[in-house]
Amino acid sequence: MPEFTYLIVGGGMAADSAARGIRTVDAKGSIAIITSESNPPYNRPPLSKALWKGEPIDNIWRSTPESNVTIRLRRTVVSLDVKSKTVADDEGISHSFQ
Q: Using CA atoms, how far apart are residues 90 and 40, in angstroms rounded to an integer?
């Protein structure tokens, strides 16, 4: 069973912000992000004329901290056991957190 210090469910901009926030107080704790997304966290495009500013598409990636961060893409958390500090994903893999 994979074990992490911190476990973030969901992989959007908030997950990236949470990982960055954790890194400001704990530089070494392991972090896992479990997300049903098929890509790592990215900036959602603006839904206005700002979309057509002509900036390169590579600017959308948030570059989630790479130091001791595991991102599990295309996974959905299907159960949470707070007492044992575990979650199970849709592939039947249990992940524990502290």
A: 18
